[in-house]
Amino acid sequence: xxxxxxxxxxxxxxxxxxxxxxxxxxxxxxxxxxxxxxxxxxxxxxxxxxxxxxxxxxxxxxxxxxxxxxxxxxxxxxxxxxxxxxxxxxxxxxxxxxxxxxxxxxxxxxxxxxxxxxxxxxxxxxxxxxxxxxxxxxxxxxxxxxxxxxxxxxxxxxxxxxxxxxxxxxxxxxxxxxxxxxxxxxxxxxxxxxxxxxxxxxxxxxxxxxxxxxxxxxxxxxxxxxxx
Length: 228
Description:
- This protein is an alpha/beta fold.
- About 45% of the residues lie in helices and about 25% in strands.
- It has helices spanning about 10-20, 35-40, 60-70, 85-95, 105-120, 120-125, 155-165, 170-180, 190-205, and strands at about 1-5, 25-30, 45-50, 75-80, 95-100, 125-130, 135, 140-145, 145-150, 170, 210-215, 220-225.
- The strands form 3 sheets. The chain has a 5-stranded parallel sheet, with helices on both faces. Strands 6-7-8-9 form a 4-stranded antiparallel sheet.
């Protein structure tokens, strides 16, 4: 699981990373609002912990902007502002949960686990369905009707993203971040190769779904209309 921590208090930031990494999570740490907003909007994380008071851009502002852009990553807001009106502001901005400072690490981890469970029920993680496609995320098998084909782990991650997006265009930056990691040093041509791999797999199993290029945005998995 990939988690994002946006907290400007460097000591607390390090502590959060240590707590989460000890539990086996992979953590990306940011210390200001603008950097945090950039990484959150890469849509590369399973959950984000976001401080309210940040230099550059506040936690609620980051959330409002991200939700407007369709980023639905679960967010737990961290703040010393615990009045009811602050909680309402936080939740209305798009936060999924709220944790007041100071907090106990056990409660922090419990809230992380709870929000991850709500985000991804077990049954959704195993088999995904969209259009005429069925993708088994555990067996790495992509099927259409009676035909199926095995895919690599990297291609499987890409297929999973497109299946879950249900026709919504995914930016190249999002694909890079989710499949290879936000900080990975990967050449642009690698993504082009994998887009080609996916298109060939769709043709091999005779799917009516098509991976369409959306100019200026990225790619979308859509059903081809007859006569196109």
